[in-house]
UniProtKB/TrEMBL annotation:
It comes from Nesterenkonia halotolerans. GO terms for molecular function: DNA binding. Residues 1-68 form the HTH merR-type domain. This is DNA-binding transcriptional MerR regulator. PANTHER family: MERR FAMILY REGULATORY PROTEIN, REDOX-CYCLING DRUG-SENSING TRANSCRIPTIONAL ACTIVATOR SOXR. The lineage of its organism: Bacteria, Bacillati, Actinomycetota, Actinomycetes, Micrococcales. PROSITE patterns: HTH_MERR_2 (PS50937). Keywords: DNA-binding. It comes from the Bacteria.
Length: 133
């Protein structure tokens, strides 16, 4: 497949395909006219990359995982992938916890600010954030 066909089938822009090729995430050969030619396996690799990116894995991790899946058994792949996913899940849970704490602080702040009295005087401490800490 030419680069335009890969783009049409995968939705991945040609610039991204070239970048992935520079990083050795995908490969192509050169036709006699100089055009890149991709094998059918590139679509599967692009799908793998897409899912891994949705999990917020970085491109180095993705490259390593692609190498493991290409050269290893299912057992090796599972054993390599499991700790990566477990670490990522821990990171996401920590992010969710921090976001929940932020949400609670914002909700308290919003309630607090809503009760501030109308006044043409300079703001007193009862409306300041420091009252919430």
């Amino acid at each position: 497949m030419r680069i335009s066909e890969v783009t049409a089938h995968s939705g991945v822009p040609a610039t991204t395909l070239r970048y992935y090729e520079q990083l050795d995430l995908i490969t192509s050969t050169r036709a006699s006219n100089g055009y890149r030619e991709y094998g059918p396996e590139v679509l599967e690799r692009l799908s793998f990359i897409s899912v891994a990116k949705k999990m917020n894995l970085d491109l180095e991790q993705i490259k390593w995982l692609l190498q493991v899946t290409a050269t290893g058994t299912c057992t090796n792949t599972r054993d390599a992938l499991h700790p990566v996913l477990a670490d990522r899940l821990r990171e996401v849970k920590d992010s969710i916890r921090r976001l929940e704490e932020l949400k609670a602080l914002l909700e308290r702040s919003l309630e607090h600010v809503a009760t501030c009295p109308d006044s043409s005087e300079p703001c007193q401490s009862e409306c300041a954030f420091k009252a919430l800490i």
